[in-house]
Design goal:
Blueprint lengths: L6 E9 L3 H17 L3 E7 L6 H11 L4 E4 L8 H11 L2 E6 L11 H11 L3 E3 L19 H4 L11 E4 H4 L1
Parallel strand pairs: 1-2, 1-4, 2-3
Antiparallel strand pairs: 4-6, 5-6
């Protein structure tokens, strides 16, 4: 990792009015942070009007090693705006997006980190399980990745680890 890259993986979690979900999300994500030093946690407030941001701001006083940012209202709303801000703020070689109601099982997380270090892939698909009907996977490549970054985009990107330089 070069000097600018302090972590192996940044987990970026955008949220909007997620007061009911934030405690559970934080608890699960912070357990990953405790077990893996090379993981950076970034929460992005997408112009919430409830108390979600305040809840996380208080947690930052106790659990200092996670980041919290707000999107600029002038740049619009939507998960794409928040995710892009997360990429800009991240200090790692790899990006994993989660929604506030997602969680990771950390059984094989060390293997995932080692895989990234050894093979340096641009895109890594993780196995996913859900109670919900999932949007179909889009096999991203250099020709269709731009679609993902549009504000109104609703393509399924959760559970995919992306190389930051490849994204940029």
């Amino acid at each position: 990792l070069n000097a600018a890259m302090k972590y192996n993986l940044s987990i970026i979690i955008p949220f909007f009015n997620s007061r009911k979900l934030i405690e559970k999300s934080f608890k699960k994500i912070y357990n990953i942070k405790k077990k893996f030093n090379g993981v950076e946690i970034i929460y992005i407030d997408n112009n919430s009007t409830d108390k979600t941001y305040k809840i996380l701001k208080k947690k930052q006083l106790i659990f200092k090693n996670f980041s919290l940012f707000k999107t600029d209202k002038k740049k619009g709303q939507g998960p794409g705006v928040a995710r892009n801000l997360g990429v800009i703020k991240s200090k790692s070689e790899y990006i994993l997006y989660l929604d506030v109601d997602d969680f990771l099982k950390i059984k094989n997380f060390k293997k995932v980190i080692n895989f990234l270090k050894i093979y340096k892939p641009n895109i890594t698909y993780l196995e996913k399980k859900s109670d919900q009907i999932l949007a179909p996977y889009i096999m991203y490549n250099k020709y269709n990745l731009k679609k993902y970054f549009k504000n109104t985009n609703n393509m399924e990107i959760i559970g995919i680890i992306l190389n930051k330089n490849f994204l940029i």
